[in-house]
Design a protein that fits this description.
Number of domains: 3
CATH superfamily of the largest domain: P-loop containing nucleotide triphosphate hydrolases
Distance between the termini: 44 Å
Strand order of the largest sheet: 2-1-3-4-5
Oligomer: single chain
Helix content: 40-55%
Largest sheet: 5 strands, parallel
Strand content: 5-15%
Structural class: alpha/beta
CATH class of the largest domain: Alpha Beta
Number of strands: 14
Number of helices: 20
Length: 478
């Protein structure tokens, strides 16, 4: 970070209006911005004393006569691990694909949404020098919400969470969703809204952790003109925007105490008090909150209001991490690949059984979001018809390192999440073919794709195994 603790953004752009817009949005997220006109001047800036403190580069303008990959390569020569973000036209993702292949970590499209830019900048701060350069969250690029019956997962803990969420959708009470970062809390929140009586109205999403603490009240509840220095216009808050619909408050544990008091009033009385306003605004809004921290512990430590916690925790959904439901990885990987390849500039790809076996051996500390990002990077770089283990070198290296350092631990972790679900959501027994397919997938993962050993342990011939793979739709290029 910059020497004063403020993160520093290098914006490559030569358009004054766009520079002012981006620097203003970045400022709201707590960033300081410096500028460069092109790749050469940006490279020169990186070699200066101030350049050594830059935390991210945002490229909004480049010379069309030179490939974007060349520009990124110039910057990478100076700072190989520095996060690079790209801004592309809304209807042209080809430059984004080119940038990703060249080493960019994420892209944004014009017109730039302030929340999206602030979240992207916030995400770059999570990239430490010791971490592999996974792509950042891509859920905003795959925006179509899923219904409950479209959410992939059959592990018992996950099905239990979905069952509670489905019940919550039909009620009119607040919902608290807890789980580690990347487990899919927003996906479940979207499904709750889509299955609720409010589905015809908006669901407004606010990431409380991506907004500077001094702006949270203004963003959520609005302000009147002149309410504070810089309040040149009246602003409608997100709670009013979500009237008759749903507001989803992500990372609610990061909400400042003053905003917690006002949110409690929204829940108790259905009233929003904008900054500088004398009369409150009546609203009818359903609140869904999410936290990657255990809010009950935050209450005990005095960091979160107890009365607000109990107001939010009327319905509680606890989403399990991916490492304890590894049996869901094959279906999840195929589903995410299908959604990714629907994006402009992407092509249809399969994934081999050996690759799925490799993915099932990883612990996935970033959960489903990390799996999605890894698949996206692999899909961009893959030149064959299907993803193979060779397309996941970083995952393979991490698995080998873990196995060499902790062989017994690695062996135990391979067994996590390998339960077989016998019942459907409606309580009926699953079909024998579906159960058999799950057993074969688990065996392939457990024996790391060694098909002779899989057949021997299952008590069937190798030719019979391959016939079953074809019949059940889990062949090598599935």
């Amino acid at each position: 970070m910059a020497r004063d603790g403020t993160p520093l953004l290098l914006l490559v752009d030569d358009e004054p209006a766009q520079k002012r817009l981006i620097s203003a949005i970045a400022g709201r997220a707590g960033w300081r911005t410096i500028f460069a006109r092109d790749a050469l001047s940006a490279s020169a800036t990186l070699s200066t004393a101030e350049g050594t403190h830059i935390d991210a580069i945002l490229i909004d303008r480049w010379n069309k006569q030179h490939p974007l990959s060349d520009m990124i390569d110039i910057l990478r020569q100076r700072r190989p691990t520095l996060p690079i973000l790209i801004i592309t036209p809304h209807d042209d993702v080809s430059h984004a694909v080119e940038a990703m292949r060249a080493g960019a970590c994420d892209y944004l499209t014009k017109p730039i949404a302030p929340d999206r830019l602030m979240a992207a900048l916030d995400s770059t701060l999570d990239m430490s020098e010791s971490k592999s350069r996974e792509l950042r969250p891509l859920t905003e690029k795959m925006t179509a919400p899923l219904a409950f019956n479209e959410i992939v997962g059959s592990a018992p803990q996950f099905l239990a969470a979905l069952a509670i969420a489905a019940k919550a959708a039909r009620a009119r009470v607040p919902v608290l969703i807890e789980g580690e970062s990347g487990v899919g809390k927003e996906v479940i929140a979207q499904a709750i809204h889509a299955a609720s009586p409010r589905y015809r109205n908006r669901m407004v999403t606010v990431n409380c952790g991506a907004i500077p603490a001094n702006l949270v009240e203004s963003v959520l509840f609005g302000h009147e003109r002149g309410a504070f220095t810089g309040a040149f216009e009246r602003q409608i808050g997100k709670c009013v925007d979500a009237d008759m619909g749903t507001i989803f408050l992500d990372e609610i544990s990061e909400m400042p105490p003053e905003a917690q008091v006002k949110l409690l009033r929204v829940l108790q009385d259905g009233e929003v008090q904008p900054l500088g306003a004398r009369i409150p605004i009546r609203v009818d809004v359903r609140v869904i909150a999410a936290s990657n921290k255990v809010l009950e512990e935050e209450v005990r430590e005095g960091r979160f209001r107890e009365d607000l916690y109990y107001r939010l925790n009327v319905m509680h959904v606890s989403v399990p991490p991916l490492r304890i439901r590894k049996s869901d990885i094959p279906a999840l990987a195929r589903h995410l690949l299908d959604r990714l390849t629907e994006q402009p500039g992407m092509r249809n790809l399969g994934i081999t059984t050996e690759a799925l076996s490799l993915l099932m051996q990883h612990d996935w500390p970033g959960n489903v979001r990390q799996l999605q990002n890894v698949l996206f990077r692999a899909a961009i770089l893959c030149e064959g018809p299907a993803l193979t283990p060779q397309d996941f070198p970083q995952i393979a290296a991490q698995i080998i390192t873990r196995a060499e350092g902790h062989p017994r631990l690695a062996s135990n972790q391979q067994r996590e999440g390998t339960s077989i679900t016998l019942f459907e959501n409606n309580g009926h027994i699953r079909s024998l073919a579906d159960i058999e397919a799950d057993i074969i997938r688990l065996a392939i993962g457990h024996y790391r794709g060694r098909m002779t050993e899989v057949a021997r342990q299952l008590g069937i011939g190798r030719s019979t195994l391959y016939r079953k793979l074809a019949e059940l739709g889990i062949d090598n290029a599935a």
